[in-house]
């Protein structure tokens, strides 16, 4: 393709769509490239409660993303469904190559997101959003007075377990070792929390239920013994939260963009990366809170920085 866009945005999650909205509204020629469905992780969320301005009576991930997509389209943002295989980000014009061809832009916003590392048990994919979650901040409210289980033993897992204990009546941490990997200060708080219990040396092998999560099989990795865990009959279900890390969609930029040891892209508070004209937004960047609201904010900032650079505001 011969057209050189003012900005090419990689990813149509909340960060990419917000960036598109702000860029399009600033009358920048804008292209969003998305390889899958719009929304990223939020697209598989059945219910949202904490996005400012959402439909209070009931909002799902797909419904919120559908409106974001329409907003971006309203301001003339072009869309392509494609998978980028190679990038050339040096120079004044960035080149993004795919199996279909190539795209060119004066600026690039990387909003490729991240995905939760799966627990790895049988049946997991069938119950995402139906009892299985990877975000306590997003979904804790839905398990008020229910029992929940947390898989993991690092800082994030234990911190999220303590957060969940504010809502659930009991939280059980399932860890494949006989001691936590979390910082000692975090461990002490968890051990002192009367709502938190532990399954040591254990992994979740399988989960099951009718439409919602109702049972699981947990295996002791040392003895080989298994136990069946089933929902309280009065509850009818329980929650299973996986916190064994997230994986950023950043492999395409290895050796080009500065990242941390986990593959998250480094960006300053204005979303600049180490490469001039390349910005990062959303879950793929190093940040303390990965939520729809922070992703949208990142996208707005990145697009505004692009507009300012093209207008020679700096």
UniProtKB/TrEMBL annotation:
Its cofactor is FAD. Keywords: Disulfide bond, FAD, Flavoprotein, NADP, Oxidoreductase, Redox-active center. Binds 1 FAD per subunit. The keyword Transferase does not apply. Its EC number is 1.8.1.9. One of its GO terms (cellular component) is cytoplasm. It is an enzyme of class 1 (oxidoreductase). Coiled coil: none annotated. Residues 5-299 form the FAD/NAD(P)-binding domain. GO terms for biological process: removal of superoxide radicals. It catalyses: [thioredoxin]-dithiol + NADP(+) = [thioredoxin]-disulfide + NADPH + H(+). SUPFAM superfamilies: FAD/NAD(P)-binding domain (SSF51905). GO terms for molecular function: thioredoxin-disulfide reductase (NADPH) activity. PANTHER family: THIOREDOXIN REDUCTASE 1-RELATED-RELATED. Homodimer. This is Thioredoxin reductase. The lineage of its organism: Bacteria, Bacillati, Bacillota, Clostridia, Lachnospirales.
């Amino acid at each position: 393709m011969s057209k050189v866009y003012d900005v090419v945005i990689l990813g149509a999650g909340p960060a990419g769509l917000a960036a598109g909205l702000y860029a399009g509204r600033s009358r920048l020629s804008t292209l969003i490239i998305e390889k899958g469905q719009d929304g990223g992780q939020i697209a598989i969320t059945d219910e949202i409660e904490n996005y400012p301005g959402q439909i209070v009576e009931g909002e799902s991930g797909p419904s919120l993303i559908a409106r974001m997509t329409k907003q971006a389209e309203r301001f003339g943002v072009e869309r392509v469904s494609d998978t980028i295989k190679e990038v050339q980000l040096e120079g004044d014009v960035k080149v993004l190559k795919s199996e279909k061809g190539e795209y060119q832009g004066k600026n690039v916003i990387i909003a490729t997101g991240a995905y939760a590392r799966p627990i790895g048990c049988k049946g997991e994919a069938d119950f995402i959003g139906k009892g299985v979650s990877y975000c306590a901040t997003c979904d804790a409210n839905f398990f008020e007075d229910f029992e929940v289980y947390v898989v993991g033993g690092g800082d994030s897992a234990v911190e999220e377990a303590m957060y969940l204990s504010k809502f659930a009546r009991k939280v059980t941490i399932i860890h494949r070792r006989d001691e936590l990997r979390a910082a000692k200060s975090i461990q002490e708080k968890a051990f002192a929390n009367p709502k938190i219990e532990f399954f040591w040396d254990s992994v979740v092998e399988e989960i099951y239920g009718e439409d919602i999560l109702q049972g699981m099989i947990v295996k002791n990795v040392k003895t080989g013994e298994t136990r069946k865990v089933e929902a309280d009959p009065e509850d009818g279900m329980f929650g299973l939260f996986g916190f064994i890390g997230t994986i950023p969609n950043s492999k395409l930029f290895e050796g080009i963009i500065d990242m941390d040891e986990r593959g998250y892209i480094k960006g300053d508070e204005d979303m600049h990366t180490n490469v001039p004209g390349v910005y990062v937004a959303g879950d793929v960047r190093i940040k303390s809170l990965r939520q729809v609201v922070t992703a949208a904010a990142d996208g707005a900032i990145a697009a505004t920085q692009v507009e300012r650079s093209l207008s020679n505001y700096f």
